């Protein structure tokens, strides 16, 4: 039976002029490490769910990507993260939103799926659940990246916002 | 936003998505892609998908579940269903971003309507690719 893993980072206006060969190499290395983490589980007979979560953990731990370590800054200069998982075999699903200081939000989403009767937990409630489950919490410094901080500084004090990998504020309002 | 989709040896599939959201977001805004049905969805009968991009637009078109519905009810294959959502439905409302997906046979697609998307795929057939631009 053929097995497959695919991963993504962000999408947007990724300007090639802003991309140095070294930076491009680092992005590609991060993506490859995520693929390898998931693939090694699959080739050893592991589940698709475990493989997908393992791949995302690698990307959450990589400061270049907007998830976990390296997340973007909110208007208040904080990091608020969201994550979700779904298993195609039994349609079980779990998600968290607006969580802070959780090292790997994807693991927390998986715990919501596996250990609660709920699908989505948010904010302080999700944090309380994480504490009960013994999750690793990190200080703000863990999530800090200079690149994201500079992005935020360009917009600080305004009502504008932008996609993680776009170079300009779109000025659009949605929803 | 990051994500992964996988198909294992047993033909089971799964999706996972995680994000820090948008820079300078306010008011407890959520709605990047990690919402079940909008940016993350998996069903062995159809597909497992993970999305990235302007989350509000993915919410409006219920993008992830829509890919599954197009496969289940309109008998589209994975690529065509994803193409319909990424390059027609999202584009129609100026929704920028991309989707990665697998089906239970290990087929995959990585589609986006933006200038680039960080992405990669590895299969038991020996394919191993990472890319950023079109």
Question: Could you give the topology of this structure?
Answer:
The complex is a heterodimer of chains A (175) and B (134).
Chain A: E1 4-12, H1 21-43, H2 48-61, E2 81-87, E3 93-99, H3 105-115, E4 120-122, H4 123-132, H5 140-143, H6 146-155
Parallel strand pairs in A: 3-4
Antiparallel strand pairs in A: 2-3
Chain B: E1 2-7, E2 13-19, E3 40-42, E4 48-53, H1 55-60, H2 63-73, H3 78-92, E5 97-102, E6 108-112, E7 116-123, E8 128-133
Antiparallel strand pairs in B: 1-2, 3-4, 4-5, 5-6, 7-8
Helix pairs in contact in B: 2-3
Describe the structure.
The complex is a heterodimer of chains A (175) and B (134). With 175 residues, chain A is of the alpha+beta class. Helix content of chain A is 41%, strand content 15%. Chain A has helices spanning 21-43, 48-61, 105-115, 123-132, 140-143, 146-155; strands at 4-12, 81-87, 93-99, 120-122. A three-stranded mixed sheet of chain A has the order 2-3-4. In chain A, α3 links the parallel β3 (93-99) and β4. The radius of gyration of chain A is 17 Å and the shape is globular. The N and C termini of chain A lie far apart (42 Å). Chain B has 134 residues and is an alpha+beta fold. Chain B has three helices and eight strands. In chain B, 24% of the residues lie in helices and 35% in strands. In chain B, β1 (2-7) and β2 form a beta hairpin. Chain B has helices at residues 55-60, 63-73, 78-92, and strands at residues 2-7, 13-19, 40-42, 48-53, 97-102, 108-112, 116-123, 128-133. Chain B starts with a strand and ends with a strand. The radius of gyration of chain B is 14 Å and the shape is globular. In chain B, the strands form three sheets. A four-stranded antiparallel sheet of chain B has the order 3-4-5-6. A two-stranded antiparallel sheet of chain B has the order 1-2. The interface between A and B is large, with 93 and 79 residues.
């Amino acid at each position: 039976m053929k097995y497959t893993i695919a991963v993504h980072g962000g999408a947007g206006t990724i300007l090639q002029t802003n991309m140095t060969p070294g930076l491009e190499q680092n992005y590609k290395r991060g993506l490859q490490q995520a693929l390898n983490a998931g693939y090694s589980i699959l080739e050893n007979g592991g589940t698709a769910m475990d493989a997908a979560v393992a791949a995302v953990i690698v990307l959450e731990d990589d400061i270049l990507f907007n998830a976990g370590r390296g997340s973007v800054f909110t208007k208040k200069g904080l990091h608020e993260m969201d994550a979700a998982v779904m298993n195609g075999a039994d349609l079980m699903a779990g998600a968290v939103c607006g969580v802070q200081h959780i090292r790997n939000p994807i693991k927390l989403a998986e715990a919501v799926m596996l250990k609660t009767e709920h699908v989505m937990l948010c904010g302080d409630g999700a944090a309380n659940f994480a504490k009960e489950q013994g999750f690793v919490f990190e200080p703000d410094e863990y999530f800090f990246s200079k690149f994201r901080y500079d992005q935020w500084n360009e917009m600080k004090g305004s009502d504008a916002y932008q996609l993680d990998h776009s170079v300009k504020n779109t000025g659009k309002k949605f929803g | 936003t990051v994500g992964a989709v996988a198909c294992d040896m047993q033909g089971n599939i799964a999706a996972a998505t995680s994000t820090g959201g948008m820079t300078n977001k306010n008011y407890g805004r959520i709605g990047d892609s990690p919402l079940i049905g909008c940016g993350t969805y998996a069903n062995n009968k159809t597909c497992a998908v993970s999305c990235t991009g302007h989350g509000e637009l993915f919410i409006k078109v219920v993008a992830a579940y829509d890919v599954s519905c197009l496969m289940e009810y309109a008998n589209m294959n994975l690529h065509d269903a994803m193409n319909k959502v990424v390059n027609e439905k999202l584009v129609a409302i100026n929704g920028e971003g991309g989707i990665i997906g697998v089906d239970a046979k290990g087929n995959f697609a990585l589609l986006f309507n933006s200038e680039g998307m960080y992405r990669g795929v590895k299969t038991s057939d020996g394919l191993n690719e990472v890319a950023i631009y079109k």
